[in-house]
Design a protein that fits this description.
- The structure is a single chain.
- Helices cover 5% and strands 53% of the residues.
- The chain has one domain (19-125): Lipocalin.
- The chain is mainly beta and 126 residues long.
- Strands 1-2-3-4-5-6-7-8 form an 8-stranded antiparallel barrel.
- It has one helix spanning 2-7; strands at residues 22-26, 31-37, 40-47, 56-65, 68-75, 80-88, 96-105, 116-125.
Length: 126
């Protein structure tokens, strides 16, 4: 319910268009590749780190509204889904997206809250 109360504070309408198309790298070296058509994102995510020490990939889909961005990755080799939301930093020296993320993974019944991990990433245009 807090979400519904928070959205009323959002600005009316949509923001001035920002083109997020291309490759963006986070602080760990992972690459989000965005293909933008209007306000819809598709693409691919390549994580530079994984439990096995190799890269992990996933299909990416999302939305943009002006300088706001949200995208979700469904991992190819893991029963996990990660979602990011963020905003392009207007005054950063290089184009930077500040994001928060949450990932959910499969767990045993009754352990659902243990399935959710959260963090933050900054992505810079490559």
């Amino acid at each position: 319910m807090l979400l519904e109360k928070s959205v009323v504070r959002a600005a009316k309408g949509t923001g001035a268009p920002v083109d997020f198309s291309g490759d963006w790298k986070n602080e760990l070296g992972s690459i989000a590749t965005f293909v933008q058509k209007g306000d819809v994102l598709t693409g691919k995510y390549v994580s530079a780190v994984s439990e096995s020490g190799t890269s992990a990939t996933g299909v990416l889909s999302g939305f943009v509204d002006g300088d706001l961005i949200s995208f979700v990755v469904h991992w190819d080799d893991f029963q996990a889904i990660t979602a990011w939301v963020g905003q392009l930093a207007a005054k950063a020296p290089t184009q930077t997206i500040h994001t928060l993320w949450q990932m959910t993974t499969q767990v045993s019944p009754g352990e659902e809250w243990a399935s959710i991990n959260a963090g933050a990433d900054d992505f810079v245009r490559v």
